[in-house]
Amino acid sequence: MSPREKAFQLRAAVALAEPKFKLSQLVPFLGPAIIASVAYMDPGNFATNISGGAEYGYALLWVILAANLAAMFIQYLSAKVGIVTGKNLAELIRTHYSRPVTVAFWIQGEIVAMATDLAEFLGAALALHLLVGMSLLEGALVAAVVSFGLLALQRYGFRPLEAAIAALVGVIAICYVFEFFLSKPDPGLWTGFVPGFKDSGMLYLAVGVLGATVMPHVIYLHSALTQNRIPTDTPQAKRKLLLFTKVEVVLALGVAGLINMAMLIAAAGAFYGKGLENAGDLTVAYQTLVPLLGPLAAAAFAVALLASGLSSSTVGTLSGQVIMQGFVDFKIPVWVRRAVTMIPAFVVILLGVDATKALVLSQVILSFGIPFALVPLLRFTSNPKVMGEHANKLWVRTIGFVVAAVIIGLNLLLLVQTFLG
User: Fold this and answer.
1) For the domain that residue 380 is a member of, what is the CATH number?
2) What is the number of structural domains in the chain?
């Protein structure tokens, strides 16, 4: 452990020993939820949010709000299981389920991790293509080098990587605050928080926003980020750590939700009602922004996409490492993991597949993995034998399984609509 991490551990211990909760004590506990929040601002979110704003204006804002509240709920449970048990979700599945079932979980987890990495890597490569005119292959090579550099920060402890991810999230936020004001949104945008559907096309997009929001890989990852990160010696300290974690989750996912809303609002302000419904294609969106809002707006969009792709691809690689080590107790160097998971992205680029269509397909693949992560999470966090006094109360269990049923149902609907129209 580095001297800096020891200092953070000391500050955390002092905060946990304090009987009263103080917001000023939150700093040592920041990090895991910020990393998890990246999954809710990935290039797939860019595609669905921009498409939704271009086609339906502000009408899908309520869907983003609902998806964000569900994300807060799920990510807190994931963080809680790591804090209380000292094990991540994949390790708990390996401990409590049979070997064949665990292997099946591992295989689907690897597929999910590779689909995730495909989307994020393509997003970063596409951003470099839009920004500086690189080919997608050249952009992919540059993105690979940068992501290797980000992952190398782990050798200095967990704080430098968390800080780098937080900085990239900050870049996305700044870019979309800029886009928000340039697009001059209608003051009546608040009507978008009233639930309702105009037609079946809006329902389809809502399913895409909700269904693709809960990323299964980050459910595994968040539990790993919190396990044994900050030791707790007493039940009181553990309860206070859970309280700090809850606050961090709300703050980090709250920022992610605001960024997603800003994406949709900016797209609505720029494209809605102008015959530009195909702006859901990220290349078209970039090219269209230049004549509508100017080159600075287009550049801000591409920079945000680049920051999103680089940060989320790093998080995807970390998730893949957790999945492999947790399910089969096997670890490989993270650079090897990074190199292997880049292969599908390079294959897609070399085959000349449309980048945005590949992004959408990756989101559909991810929808298959949601039940495999979400249902075990709810079962473990509701089991007193696993969680002790921190097991979910009846009302939390009820909300949890309602949220799971809605998300899984919407994902099944998304699959049916995708493959059967």
Assistant:
1) 1.20.1740.10
2) 1
Tell me if 359 is assigned to some domain: yes
270: pLDDT confidence band, cut at 50, 70 and 90?
confident
DSSP for 50-79, written as a single string: HHHHHHHTTTTHHHHHHHHHHHHHHHHHHH
Nearest CA-CA partner of 90 in 215, 214, 246, 222: 222
pLDDT single digits (tens) 356-407: 667 666 766 777 788 889 999 999 999 999 999 999 999 999 999 998 888 8
Kindly provide the b/e burial profile for residues 92-129, where b requires at least 16 CB atoms within 10 angstroms of the residue's own CB: bbbeeeeeeebeebbebbbebbbbbbbbbbbbbbbbbb
pTM: 0.90
Host H or E run for residue 23: none
* 144 CB neighbour count, 10 Å cutoff: 19
367-404 exposure pattern, b = at least 16 Cβ within 10 A, e = fewer:
bbbbbbbbebbbbbbbeeebbeebbbeeebeeebbebb
DSSP secondary structure of 62-127: HHHHHHHHHHHHHHHHHHHHHHHHSS-HHHHHHHHS-HHHHHHHHHHHHHHHHHHHHHHHHHHHHH
CB of 88 within 8 A of CB of 224?
Answer: yes
The verdict on residue 376 lying in a domain is yes
Q: Is residue 18 part of a domain?
A: no
Domain of residue 344: give its range. 3-8+37-420
Q: Residues with Cβ < 8 Å from 258, sequence gap 6 or more?
A: 173
Q: How many C-beta atoms lie closer than 10 Å to residue 9's C-beta?
A: 15
- The answer to the question of residue 88 being in a domain is yes
